[in-house]
What does this fold into?
Amino acid sequence: MSDQTIHVFLDVRVPPENRSTFNSVMWELVAQAENEPGTLVYEWNFADDDETCHIHERYQDIEQGEIHVRNFAENYAGRFFEAIGGIKASVYGEPGEYIRQVLDGVKPAYYARVAGFNRF
It folds into this structure.
């Protein structure tokens, strides 16, 4: 499984005036992702500044990643992007064409696995 997994790391700035809206979208997305068996990790963490949120997503493979990203694009993207003040994205593994197209607007950095292992 580890050779096929896809990781998405998002570094999101949330203006204080948008925090309530952001939190609503966050909880909806977390509830949805819990029902996606191919979503292996889905964690949202706020920094001490209370305006920077790091999101870590890990998908079993391209197909499972696409299920989540398609749902996000169709149901949550508008509210999510309206609530944030900036975003930086990094993607590890090969996400496939569909995920690349959806993420194109945030201009993520893509990283190919060249060595190492995980025990997940």
About this structure: The CA atoms of residues 22 and 83 lie 5 Å apart. The domain at 6-111 is CATH 3.30.70.100 (Alpha-Beta Plaits). The helical segments are 19-34, 62-75, 77-83, 96-103. DSSP finds four helices and five strands in the chain.
